[in-house]
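The passage that follows is intended for readers who have already worked through the single-chain material. We present the inputs for a multi-component assembly, then the predicted structure in tokenized form, and finally a short commentary. You are encouraged to pause after the input and sketch how you expect the pieces to fit together before reading on.
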Amino acid sequence: MARRRYIQAINDALLEEMDRDPKVILFGEDVELAIFGDTRGLLDRFGRDRIRNTPICEATLTGMAVGAAAAGYRVVLHMMFSNFVYTGFDAIANQMAKLRLMTGGQLNLPITVLAGYGAGRSTGAQHSDTPYPLLMNLGGVNVLTPSTPADAKGLLKQAIRGENPSFFLEASGRGAESGEVPDEDYTVPFGQAAVLREGRDVTVVAIGHMVKPVLGVADELAERGVGVEVIDPRTLVPLDEESILRSVERTGRLVVVDEARDRCGAASHIAAVVADRAFPALKAPVKRVSVPNVAMPYAPSAESRVLPDADGVSKAVLGLVAP
Amino acid sequence: MARRRYIQAINDALLEEMDRDPKVILFGEDVELAIFGDTRGLLDRFGRDRIRNTPICEATLTGMAVGAAAAGYRVVLHMMFSNFVYTGFDAIANQMAKLRLMTGGQLNLPITVLAGYGAGRSTGAQHSDTPYPLLMNLGGVNVLTPSTPADAKGLLKQAIRGENPSFFLEASGRGAESGEVPDEDYTVPFGQAAVLREGRDVTVVAIGHMVKPVLGVADELAERGVGVEVIDPRTLVPLDEESILRSVERTGRLVVVDEARDRCGAASHIAAVVADRAFPALKAPVKRVSVPNVAMPYAPSAESRVLPDADGVSKAVLGLVAP
Amino acid sequence: MPTTEQLLSMYERMLLIRRMEERLSADYAAGKLPGAVHLYIGQEAVAVGVCAQLTDRDWITSTHRGHGHFLAKGGDPKAMMAEIWGKRTGICRGMGGSMHVADLSKGILGANGIVAGGIAIATGAAFGARLDGDGRVAVAFFGDGAANQGVFMETLNVSTLWGLPVVFLCEYNHFCEFTPSETVTAGQISDRARAFGMPCAVVDGNDVVEVWRAAGEAVERARGGGGPSFIEAKTYRIQGHLEAEAVILDGKYREEAEIEEWRRRDPIDRLREHLSAAGACDDDGFAEIESRVSGAVEEAAAFAAEGEPADPELAFDLMFVGQRP
Amino acid sequence: MPTTEQLLSMYERMLLIRRMEERLSADYAAGKLPGAVHLYIGQEAVAVGVCAQLTDRDWITSTHRGHGHFLAKGGDPKAMMAEIWGKRTGICRGMGGSMHVADLSKGILGANGIVAGGIAIATGAAFGARLDGDGRVAVAFFGDGAANQGVFMETLNVSTLWGLPVVFLCEYNHFCEFTPSETVTAGQISDRARAFGMPCAVVDGNDVVEVWRAAGEAVERARGGGGPSFIEAKTYRIQGHLEAEAVILDGKYREEAEIEEWRRRDPIDRLREHLSAAGACDDDGFAEIESRVSGAVEEAAAFAAEGEPADPELAFDLMFVGQRP
Ligand SMILES: Cc1ncc(C[n+]2csc(CCOP(=O)(O)OP(=O)(O)O)c2C)c(N)n1
Ligand SMILES: Cc1ncc(C[n+]2csc(CCOP(=O)(O)OP(=O)(O)O)c2C)c(N)n1
Ligand SMILES: [Mg+2]
Ligand SMILES: [Mg+2]
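Having made your guess, compare it with the prediction:
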């Protein structure tokens, strides 16, 4: 095990996978110089055939990803910030997510789309969306939200080796956080949640960015005698419903903490799955701690008001155990 | 009251609102000839300044809607099929849904976007999406899903007179269905669900297209002694949570019937709201009857397999009352 | 100039497209086809002239009006017909339908229900070909309406910059649905491509030889590493935008006389006259071709009619490789 | 040729933009600004030359690099500064930030964090102006990078067809973030506009008089019902793409010598020399302007520093008119 920063782990995964398979190519706007850090060193190592700056034209980039995949390449498309996914949304929603079905299974689409998501750094409404609910609803694309360097590396490697389109969402502003990363070659399989902490009173499902503050809350509440079980789904598509259900069957209580807007968000979906499939076990209302249905305000004072925080999580959990 | 077809009611609303307010303009691809029927007669009556065919360029059309609204017009943008909303998604998700906040409230956006949605006529995956979950998650746009001619007319008039961006989703292939429409000038307010049928055993929330088959099921089950309360939210943003909660508080049971894909769908969201806010009243799991997470297959045999139908609704309801 | 053999082969292919679509038109009217159908009648010379320059290893992307491209590129008539009927024997197992016929084994990356949806896909495939350096070419077929979508200009830029082996093939058939194309098109479409420094040709799309020649130059350039080209083929959509148009449309958007005028320039008739005049084929010969073609159409129709309806469970298997949706 | 008075006014406005941004640069480095900041230093002649041809009733749309356009169009320096500080006294009440400064009362439809996001908005406003027929004009400012987005070409098409009073103002500042523009731009951007039949001008963007003249022609044409125009202003981004670039960037994308060369063509220095040579202003006069400007900057900075942080509840009120989100 070595300590790596989140962004280094991503960089390592890209380097290793591009080394491993000459069919892996990466393109996007400003990928040659590594402003996020994730593409560092790739140009020197692999040259411009395999990593390449593009013009600013997201609609074309997403479409080209499909075409290059059809031509036998494993495409990594870097879209910088999640909001630019909307600019290239047609080929995502109408092509990438549908083409395998529409061609009767003739076409595999080994495409990994990278994009930073999330708020908290006053980047304003057009640079801080959390877009996974929209992607989850498309049906045809995987959605990965790693919260640790180890998961980031393993999920990214899995995505690149896989045959299906996957959105690998990097938690913006988390690049510097570090964690232990296995030394050997490994992948993290999709659809397997991680139970990060056990607890018998309340299950808290925390997604991406939200995992860290939730673990803090769990520590704190443990001292006050409340056992919080923390589950990180790691991938939202596919979603490991069973792990969540199993936990709720024991605790009888669920809080979902989600940095996406609330309406039709990931929290809503997980809550709905539990209200359907674990109903007999439920002892209390299913709670969502999420972002209200607003565009992200710029000023720190207003931005922090709408982002889920430790306090909000703590209150939600305590509201369930001591009503 | 007069009997009008669904599409006529929409056409009536457009005619009346364009008559009423010279600032109402309508543009889109092929709006001058009325292939859907909803824009019939508008060109003759109002001329090309107020209704106009555009080139095929959805990214520009959605952006222009914002600009024309900023210039003081009330814009009706016809986008034909919902899937083309994705082609123009940038200006929807990054501009329309965010600009009022980002400008500190300086800009009002009286924009009504029309689009047909839904499957059932073998139009294939790229012409039959039900996109409201994505729109609901944006936060900044209203979402209207009228199920009757009267609601279609009243909601459309309300949208055109309003100051906020609204997506008016027409149920594709339902244009010929008719219903009673009030003779006088009226609007239907947003955020007020319609309780279409009372019943004390199970609440069924049915959206758009799904209302009609659900009413059929309710009739049938009534004969078998099962009282189904049918609620049509009519608008998904804003959502009339109170009417739904009030009903579930009486029945203790909920099925949501939704033509959108299941993951992060409207059904999930409504289920989540109820599992949170009406938990003590719940006597049974909250059920969703929705579309599996697939692209819409073309062949009728495969398309009907994935669409919610009366049988599925009936089973879901009966599953709750006679477990 | 194509050889006589090549001309005859193109003639037969054009006729096959025409007769297949006439059959589809009749089948649609008879209520046998589940979805919408957009016919290519009158434009056959474009698909056939271009695809005659391609091999199975080259790619094409097509449009909502894609039967002609599919058949011209060597797609199987039976499997196409069955697809449109929604049968499990269809080329996409009934999952795609008329607007999405695709055959990867023939390099047909698919018809596309999104206007201009195929252009970036072809560009991406051409990027792959460029990296492989094996001389493969991608052709993006699209309509004049699609040329107003921004993605068209974006791909002109990228493909020029990167020297991609892609041919942009714009079929100017005078309409975008019910909108006359000139009312939504500023300037000449070819000038848009020229602005990027791309070699351009504007050809009579109802003259298969002219199309073939221009496509040959463009394809050769692409294969040789000379980068992208643009071709505009002027032609005319004889049928309605979609079958059923007459029933659902409130209003009229073109004159019968205009259609008649273009019927007189029918690309199949013109090639036939040319072949006759050149003594390359006589009435017996044409009758033989006609009978081969109608045999193929009959066979396709029978195959489609006999097929089982598409598997209702298939959608669940096909969304992902090795993963349930 | 502008009058001396006009030239002096443009000089002062350019200097105001420069000094405001130098202050922002320092404030950013000092950790006082919450979000990212993209500076316009070196490009001031473009915004000022163009906006000098506009009235408050005309519209502009801007980019992520929008302070210059905002101030040139008459936006209030205090309210802009407070916005960037995230204060409730900001022009957007702290909700927008640097990338979204807007002042509807001055026709500033907003900076925009989406590359090319403003172009269609300007086109839509111009459509409104055309319907009103009251001579208003919309100017879309955008970068050379934005000119590769399809929406640019789409709006060229629509605006030409409909004769809209819009001016497309492309600032060729040689970079798209860290990518040299010529590596992502095929051909001349102006040829793209020319392909639609649009009047085009390519000007020295560091010469405010040249910009002013070209903008004047385009604006006059638009006001008179003559439709859209395209102007490309060649200029250079002196600062990094964003403040903090030096800290976060792994690698180098331009030479110091190149920056130096462009510093020698500084648009403010050039206008100053011109004014001096023409005897329109002497050192005392320039000192007076400098002091007025620095007074305004100080005032803006103080105003920003003093303001209350943005109202945390405001987002809930502002999403919709008369409706909670
Ligand atoms: C993105 C998108 N917008 C709109 C449509 C609806 N539509 C289908 S065909 C068509 C006209 C296409 O015109 P053109 O590209 O010239 O092709 P043609 O039909 O003439 O072959 C339109 C607007 C669509 N399918 N996709
Ligand atoms: C749709 C979109 N894609 C990518 C970005 C990231 N981005 C911000 S600025 C920029 C470069 C813009 O270049 P240009 O248009 O020339 O403007 P300049 O920065 O030179 O003023 C990019 C790629 C963005 N903001 N929006
Ligand atoms: Mg056409
Ligand atoms: Mg630039």
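Commentary: Chain A has two domains: 2-181, 194-321. The pocket of magnesium ion (ligand 4) is lined by residues D 143-145, 173, 175-176, 181 (CB under 6 Å). How closely did your sketch match?
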